[in-house]
């Protein structure tokens, strides 16, 4: 095996390459058997998130297998000695375990309607109002003592709370996690490998390889945030929500042929194919119709648990399943020719990819918010917002007062076809004994991917039209959509056009046939090699093809191939009076689980509301590229050591990024710019769009405008093994910045209309993108120190201790070796940028200021890592307060309203005068990413370190048979490490460990 991390030559497509060479064996039979075991009975150590009465959770991990190789001999039929060889291996990885994590669940008293302890992190009671008392002015009476009569609990709440785990601590979940749960983490992965080699003659050799891998994994879903899986109850199985199962099968095969034309000319031909299938599905029983049992809308008979949002515990459901099948075929021809001082490598590749994709299901959804139990604030005028610190999603769920319901008709199974043609030439020129030049060029041709039956779309910005490859009648006839959906879209103003009318290719994407990747490098030994110094440098450009999951498949989830139907009680477009937040202003009419199953209308050609969203690809969807430069100086030193210093620069281009060109501005930005409140009525969901005001919602185009830069310094000191020991230690300093490259997760590009005047430095794409998104890539640590070593234990025959030991003693205690590896890591975190009041310089205290934090109702010792925002009403408070803050503490940012006891305490509401002279209260926001002065502020978090140790020995049994025994300790010293602080208040608690607790692993390998 050879790993290349930089300077890969033109034969290889990417800069980091693993080159694995396998052979069948010799004329003798060789093989091995091994078993590796870890379990909770041996060395599973405690971590911080484990409860005080910790008992190691169930953990059984086994890796075992066997392999054999040798000549093919069939008595009386065939003798493959010196010609035909086989290799076969079987191995299996099995894990049955539970992993601890801290999550949020509703308090016990909240589940019975007692919300008298419902306070936020500032210690402010969230007052609940009774929607049944709503008068004509939208005003309500608060529930006495903040308690709701248990008889008013909705059927949905009864079922949901019955399957919600109980808390394990007394913490307020609005402040701190209150459930320590052990989530399932199981895997089973068997693997079969077979290879046969045949030497036709000295000049011609063949091989055939076959691999089969199955994977079955069950874990917590932890999406959109960490959450426990539900428990069995109310007739529902365990794991109805919160668990997931991943099923993967990978089959690969390869046929290779090597021909030696002459000692200086060799050809290698490889044909390979991979069959891959992946199915991602929910846990519990995802085939049940949970919505029918819960009394929720399910217009299309979807199975699985729906998504229920807004309460303390998120219920992500199981209607997220997706499936992928792929067949990837490669033909590689690699030739090597030596001409004097030149080693020429040249050849090419043809790659053909076929994908079948079931796009992620969009789950039916029920949303709860602070509406039915909030009270209308008259000062907000026509914005119709609630009084600050009134209402709560948990209380709305208890009453069954959902703010919206939605159901989905999901996308069909889609087939894609893609291919690639590559050719390359590489000249490794040994100029003289001190200088070698590496000169190469790779040319890649990437034709546009093809979609079967044209289940794809583009968007014509100039004409506001949806571009589809076939007439819309074609999709109706094929069953990919319905005429009702098409008519509904037409009624909304959606227009369809052909690629020809849009001026783009029929495939909806352009070919990229001229992708060139130059590779340049040299190795030079100055001083005529007398001092051993070596100087190396390299430059290369590498091309990455477009991934299907992040690109091609997204358009299949658009209308008319899908449809979303909803009933909202807060959207003005569906309100009986055409005004927003009807649920805040009127009595509750629908109780979830009681009379909610038929609230969503999907039967008419007006059921789909204005604001349909289309997510499309830019037709100019170029492959990603990476440009890399590095320079290295290597110098041998005394004591068999070598020092190596490397500078490495990487630049990524054409990274994917979502451009939300029709993203609606915040209410404040719209009202400040226009002097009116947002329009209401039918077009309430579309009227504030900067691109379109009647038809479309928050459309985005996935485009290739992202880029990244990384400057890194690597220092490596290595000692080769001598006198019984060897070691390596290295330090990597990296400053990585990025825009895009992470699909929908970050780096969204928003239009200039989303910002207040004067905020942006410019509105051209480059300036806007840099202002909004160019920032540190927090996934790459700034400092990374790694070290590893090997030591012969000086005990046993010929060693310092017991050097004259007899055979038995030597076998028992002699000949052992100890190996170790470890690392030191820094970590970044991005401070919150959500408040718009007074600001102060950021002060980083790290562990210099210990505080006592009682805001959750449980007092804990913590560190104030930096001067985050802690509500002034909790500072020094006798109960539920924070004490021990440094003198002169001032938060780096605070909300505009920061005076305890005032109506809007803790928020950013401000009065805004409209054109008509009226004044409304509205939440201030100057714009999305980049507008807040702390939008791109990153700080260094705690530095963590750990080490793994292994002791092992090879016991010779016979001349051809030996047994190797290993005892490995991962995180040998059970170092806990420290997680990043809270990015808002700056507090660092000690509830979680950064590292996994120590685990001890035993391995035995018999080789023959």
UniProtKB/TrEMBL annotation:
<dbReference type="GO" id="GO:0009279">
    <property type="term" value="C:cell outer membrane"/>
</dbReference>
<keyword id="KW-0998">Cell outer membrane</keyword>
<keyword id="KW-0472">Membrane</keyword>
<dbReference type="InterPro" id="IPR057601">
    <property type="entry name" value="Oar-like_b-barrel"/>
</dbReference>
<dbReference type="Pfam" id="PF25183">
    <property type="entry name" value="OMP_b-brl_4"/>
</dbReference>
<dbReference type="InterPro" id="IPR036942">
    <property type="entry name" value="Beta-barrel_TonB_sf"/>
</dbReference>
<feature type="domain" description="TonB-dependent transporter Oar-like beta-barrel">
    <location>
        <begin position="22"/>
        <end position="1001"/>
    </location>
</feature>
<protein>
    <submittedName>
        <fullName>Oar protein</fullName>
    </submittedName>
</protein>
């Amino acid at each position: 095996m050879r790993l290349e991390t930089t300077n890969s030559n033109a034969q290889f497509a990417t800069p980091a390459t693993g080159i694995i060479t396998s052979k069948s064996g010799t004329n003798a039979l060789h093989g091995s058997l091994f078993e590796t075991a870890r379990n909770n009975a041996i060395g599973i150590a405690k971590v911080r998130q484990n409860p005080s009465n910790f008992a190691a959770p169930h953990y059984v991990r086994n890796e075992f297998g066997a392999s054999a190789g040798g000549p093919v001999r069939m008595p009386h039929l065939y003798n493959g000695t010196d010609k035909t060889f086989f290799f076969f291996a079987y191995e299996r990885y099995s894990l049955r375990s539970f992993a601890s994590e801290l999550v949020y669940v509703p308090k016990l008293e909240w589940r019975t309607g007692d919300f008298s302890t419902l306070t936020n992190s500032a210690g402010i009671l969230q007052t609940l109002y009774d929607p049944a008392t709503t008068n004509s002015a939208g005003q309500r009476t608060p529930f006495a003592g903040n308690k709701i009569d248990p008889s008013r609990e909705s059927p949905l709440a009864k079922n949901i709370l019955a399957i919600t785990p109980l808390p394990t601590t007394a913490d307020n979940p609005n402040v701190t996690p209150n459930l320590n749960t052990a989530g399932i983490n199981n895997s089973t992965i068997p693997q079969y490998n077979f290879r046969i080699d045949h030497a036709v003659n000295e000049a011609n050799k063949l091989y055939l390889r076959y691999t089969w891998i199955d994977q079955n994994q069950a874990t917590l879903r932890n999406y959109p945030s960490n959450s426990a899986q539900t428990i069995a109850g109310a007739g529902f199985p365990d794991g109805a929500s919160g668990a997931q199962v991943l099923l993967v099968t990978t089959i690969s095969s390869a046929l290779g042929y090597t021909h030696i034309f002459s000692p200086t000319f060799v050809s290698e031909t490889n044909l390979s194919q991979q069959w891959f299938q992946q199915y991602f599905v929910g846990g519990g029983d995802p085939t049940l119709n949970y919505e029918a049992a819960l009394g929720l809308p399910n217009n299309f008979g979807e199975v699985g648990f729906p998504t229920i949002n807004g309460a303390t515990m998120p219920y992500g459901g199981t209607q997220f399943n997706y499936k992928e099948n792929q067949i990837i075929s490669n033909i590689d021809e690699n030739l090597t020719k030596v001409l004097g001082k030149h080693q020429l490598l040249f050849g090419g590749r043809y790659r053909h990819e076929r994908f079948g994709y079931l796009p992620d299901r969009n789950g039916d959804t029920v949303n709860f918010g602070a509406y039915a139990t909030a009270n209308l604030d008259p000062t907000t005028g026509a914005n119709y917002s609630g009084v600050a610190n009134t209402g709560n999603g948990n209380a709305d769920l208890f009453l069954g007062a959902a703010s919206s319901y939605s159901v989905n008709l999901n996308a069909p199974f889609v087939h894609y076809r893609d291919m690639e043609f590559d050719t390359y030439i590489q000249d490794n020129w040994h100029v003289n004994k001190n200088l070698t030049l590496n000169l190469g060029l790779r040319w890649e041709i990437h034709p546009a991917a093809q979609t079967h039956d044209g289940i794809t779309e583009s968007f014509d910005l100039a004409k506001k039209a949806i571009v589809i490859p076939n007439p819309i009648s074609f999709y109706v006839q094929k069953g990919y959509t319905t005429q009702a959906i098409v008519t509904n879209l037409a009624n909304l103003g959606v227009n369809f056009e052909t690629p020809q009318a849009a001026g783009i290719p029929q495939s909806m994407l352009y070919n990229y046939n001229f992708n060139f990747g130059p590779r340049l490098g040299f190795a030079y030994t100055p001083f005529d090699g007398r001092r051993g110094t070596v100087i190396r440098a390299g430059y290369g450009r590498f091309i990455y093809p477009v991934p299907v999951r992040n690109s091609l498949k997204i358009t299949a989830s658009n209308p008319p191939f899908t449809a979303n139907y909803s009933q909202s009680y807060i959207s003005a477009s569906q309100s009986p009076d055409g005004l927003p937040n009807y649920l805040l202003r009127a009595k509750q009419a629908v109780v979830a689980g009681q009379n909610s199953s038929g609230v969503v209308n999907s039967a008419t050609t007006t059921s789909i509301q204005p604001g349909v969203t289309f997510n499309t690809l830019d037709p100019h969807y170029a492959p990603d590229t990476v440009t890399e430069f590095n320079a290295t100086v290597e110098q041998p030193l005394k004591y068999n050591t070598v020092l190596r210093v490397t500078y490495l620069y990487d630049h990524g281009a054409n990274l994917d990024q979502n451009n939300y060109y029709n993203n609606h501005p915040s209410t404040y930005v719209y009202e400040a710019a226009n002097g009116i409140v947002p329009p209401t009525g039918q077009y309430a969901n579309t009227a504030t769009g900067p691109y379109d005001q009647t038809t479309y919602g928050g459309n985005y185009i996935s485009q290739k405008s992202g880029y990244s830069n990384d400057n890194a310094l690597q220092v490596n000191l290595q000692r080769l093994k001598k006198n019984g020991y060897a070691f390596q230690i290295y330090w990597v300093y990296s400053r990585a910045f990025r825009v895009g490259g992470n699909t929908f997760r970050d780096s969204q590009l928003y239009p200039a209309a989303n910002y207040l005047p004067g905020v942006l430095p410019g509105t051209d794409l480059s300036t806007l993108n840099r202002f909004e998104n160019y920032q540190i890539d927090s996934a790459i640590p700034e400092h990374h120190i790694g070290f590893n070593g090997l030591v012969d234990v000086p005990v046993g025959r010929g060693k310092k201790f017991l050097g004259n030991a007899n055979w038995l003693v030597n076998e028992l205690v002699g000949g052992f070796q100890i190996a170790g590896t470890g690392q030191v890591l820094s970590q970044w975190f991005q401070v919150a940028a959500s408040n718009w009041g007074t600001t102060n310089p950021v002060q980083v205290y790290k562990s210099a200021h210990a505080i006592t934090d009682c805001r959750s109702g449980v007092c804990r010792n913590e560190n104030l890592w930096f001067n985050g925002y802690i509500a002034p009403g909790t500072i020094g408070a006798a109960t539920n307060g924070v004490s021990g803050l440094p003198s002169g503490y001032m938060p780096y940012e605070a909300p505009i309203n920061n005076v305890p006891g005032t109506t809007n305490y803790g928020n950013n509401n401000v009065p805004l005068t409209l054109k008509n002279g009226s004044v409304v209260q509205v939440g201030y926001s100057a714009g999305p990413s980049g507008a807040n002065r702390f939008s791109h502020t990153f700080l260094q978090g705690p530095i963590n370190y750990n080490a793994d140790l292994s002791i092992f020995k090879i016991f010779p049994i016979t001349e051809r048979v030996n047994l190797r025994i290993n005892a490995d300790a991962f995180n040998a010293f059970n170092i806990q490490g420290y997680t990043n602080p809270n990015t808002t208040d700056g507090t660092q608690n000690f509830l979680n460990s950064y590292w996994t607790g120590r685990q001890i692993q035993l391995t035995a390998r018999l080789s023959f």
